[in-house]
Structure formats: structure tokens, C-alpha cells
Design goal:
There is one protein chain. The chain is 47% helix and 15% strand. By secondary structure, the chain is of the alpha/beta class. It has two domains: 156 residues, Isopropylmalate Dehydrogenase; 166 residues, Isopropylmalate Dehydrogenase. Helix 1 packs across helix 13, helix 4 runs parallel beside helix 5 and helix 6 crosses helix 7. It is globular. The relative contact order is 0.17.
Length: 341
């Protein structure tokens, strides 16, 4: 499967995308189109001791680079020869099965919407990371693509998140929860209350399995498989989770380094501690699916290392090999807003 990779996106570009692409070719059987400044890509290969472009890798030159400070609303128009724009055009033309970038989130969202386009009928694309929970993991949708949402947006997020859990995470009957400040249907703002009615209706029609409102603490304890949120609330939940994870790992390190006894204890549970750290490491997931776009797009973290890029490519392959986009397309009639009763 051929995956298009933005070689100039991210804090460690082009080194991390190049090395991650090499790993994906070797370990995942991927074919990679590396898009970016050819001389920089070749230089990164040389630094790895590789003098010729390896089998499975193809370089597509793009002179410009989308910078963090660029205006997401205009960068696609102003930098048509950027690695991001060229890569997304290749995706649009069917030259690859998915596109992976660790570049600017805002720029990627805008460029994917303008170049590749949303699925017909989808109002807004959404970022859908898989967050670790006590039950294994949950899809959080949205986590920052759209801060100001309507009930229709959240209805569509619920459907897309449910299909993602089914098709990509192999969960045949995912429970969908609406992020709120309480479990009662009357809780929250007009947005949550009106969305609750729509999701209840979809549940009665057996389109999704709606659990009801869920508080953040219950979501992280594994209460549901899909957490539906506006981008503002979802982003706060995600960033709080990331900060808490780092804090807890720091506490563990501090606790186990207090004395010889605790250091010996750490040796006994080193494997378990390693598993905990692994479960909290965003590099293990690799990236976040941008759902609602008509072709697979994966947003890797800006600080992604080579291992994270390799995993993001794997995620792109899995998404491209699923029927997720077809599921969304086939069920659009159930995802459009009717009157709220």
C-alpha cells in the first residue's frame, strides 16, 4: 500500500519522517511517497548511511514548507508548492492511499478541506485520537478541529467515531458517550442538551449505541468506547490527560528513587512500569485520524520522532484498508439534522 508522507512537517523534519518511512517500508511493507525538498530528504538518507533512494521509497520534490507561524486560512493559497499541499493533491489524484503529516494542525485541517474535500454532507471534519482508558482505549471526537459546534456537528461526530471504532479498532458494538458535566440529560448548555436528544433518537433507531452523558473522569475509567465533544472541551480533556500522565510518571520515578529499598522495588516491577509508560506514550499511537475528509488523512504529533511517524503510517494503512469512509458516505441520511423534539 502506498502512503504519502509530508517529509517537511514536524519539529524533527525531515529526519524523523525519512527514518519513519524507512521503518514503515521494512516493517509494515508500505510503499512511501516522501514529499518535500529533495536535497533535504537525500541529506537525511545520507546521514543514515544510505547513498541511494531505497526500494519502496519515492521522493516527490516540493520546494515550500508550511511553518507553524503561517496563517492556516491562507497558507494553502500562498504556498501551493508546499510539501503539505503537494502531498494532499497527490492524495486527491489517487497517487496514494493515505496522507500523513506532522505539520501544523490548523493548516492540515484547512488544506485537507480545500484540496481533498469533506465527504459530501459532512459539516466539519474532526480530529479523533484514541486515548488510553481503563478498558483499553476510547475514540475522542473532536479534540480541537472545531471549537464552536452545533448539535448537527456532534451528531455527525458520534456516527463517525462509532464507525471508526468498528472499522479500525475492531469494536463491533461501541458505546458512545456525550462529554458533559453530569449524567442527567438536563445537564450542560443548550448544545449538550439538544445533542443528547439527537443521540437518543439515533439510539432508538439502532443507528448507534448511545450510553448517555459521561463526565471526564468516567470517560477515562473506560465508561464508553467513543467520547463525543466539541473541539474546545475535547481539547481540554486531551491536554489535561496528557499533563496528568506526565505528572503521574514523574511521581512514580520520584517514589522509586527515594531509597535503596524503593530502587530495588523498582527493579522488581520494571516490566509493569514500562507497560504503563508505553500505554501513555503518544508515539505508540503515532497519529490522529482526521475524520470527515473524503480520503484518509492522519495528523501526527508535531514532536513526532521516527517511531511515531512509522506508527502514523501504519495507522494510515489501517484506515485506508477499512470501509470507514464508505460507511460514513452510505449513512449520511441518518447523520443530517432534523427537528429537535
Amino acid at each position: 500500500m502506498k502512503i504519502i508522507v509530508d517529509a517537511m512537517g514536524g519539529d524533527f523534519a525531515p529526519a524523523a519522517p525519512v527514518e519513519g518511512a524507512l521503518a514503515a517500508v521494512k516493517e509494515l511493507g508500505a510503499e512511501i511517497l516522501l514529499v518535500g525538498r529533495a536535497e533535504a530528504i537525500l541529506s537525511s538518507l545520507e546521514q543514515l548511511g544510505i547513498r541511494e533512494v531505497p526500494r519502496g521509497i519515492e521522493i516527490v520534490h516540493a520546494e515550500e514548507v508550511v511553518e507553524v507561524e503561517d496563517n492556516p486560512a491562507t497558507v494553502t493559497r500562498e504556498k501551493k508548492d508546499s510539501s503539505m499541499a503537494v502531498g494532499l493533491n497527490l492524495l486527491k489524484e489517487g497517487k496514494g492511499a493515505a496522507f500523513v503529516s506532522a505539520g501544523s494542525t490548523g493548516a492540515l485541517l484547512t488544506a485537507a478541506t480545500l484540496i481533498v474535500k469533506r465527504i459530501r454532507g459532512i459539516r466539519r471534519a474532526a480530529l479523533a485520537p484514541v486515548i488510553p482508558t481503563a478498558s483499553g482505549g476510547a475514540v475522542l471526537i473532536d479534540c480541537g478541529a472545531t471549537a464552536d459546534c452545533t448539535p448537527e456537528y456532534l451528531l455527525q461526530f458520534a456516527f463517525m467515531g462509532s464507525y471508526y471504532a468498528q472499522r479500525v479498532l475492531n469494536n463491533p458494538d461501541p458505546k458512545v458517550g456525550l462529554l458533559n458535566i453530569g449524567a442527567e440529560p438536563s445537564k450542560g448548555t443548550d448544545l449538550q442538551r439538544e445533542t443528547h436528544i439527537l443521540l437518543e433518537r439515533a439510539h432508538r433507531e439502532e443507528r448507534i449505541r448511545f450510553y448517555g452523558n459521561i463526565e471526564a473522569k468516567e470517560a477515562l475509567l473506560g465508561g464508553v468506547d467513543v467520547v463525543v465533544a466539541d473541539g474546545f472541551s475535547g481539547n481540554i480533556l486531551l491536554k489535561t490527560y496528557e499533563g496528568t500522565a506526565k505528572y503521574m510518571v514523574g511521581l512514580l520515578k520520584k517514589a522509586f528513587s527515594k531509597s535503596i529499598a524503593t530502587k530495588l522495588g523498582a527493579l522488581l516491577v520494571m516490566g509493569e512500569i514500562g507497560e504503563i509508560k508505553k500505554s501513555l506514550d503518544p508515539n505508540e499511537v503515532g497519529g490522529t485520524a482526521l475524520l470527515g475528509i473524503s480520503k484518509p488523512v492522519i495528523k501526527a504529533h508535531g514532536s513526532s520522532n521516527a517511531y511515531a511517524i512509522r506508527n502514523a503510517i501504519g495507522q494510515g494503512m489501517k484506515l485506508a484498508g477499512s470501509d470507514l469512509i464508505q460507511d460514513i458516505t452510505d449513512n449520511m441520511e441518518y447523520m443530517r439534522l432534523t427537528s429537535v423534539e
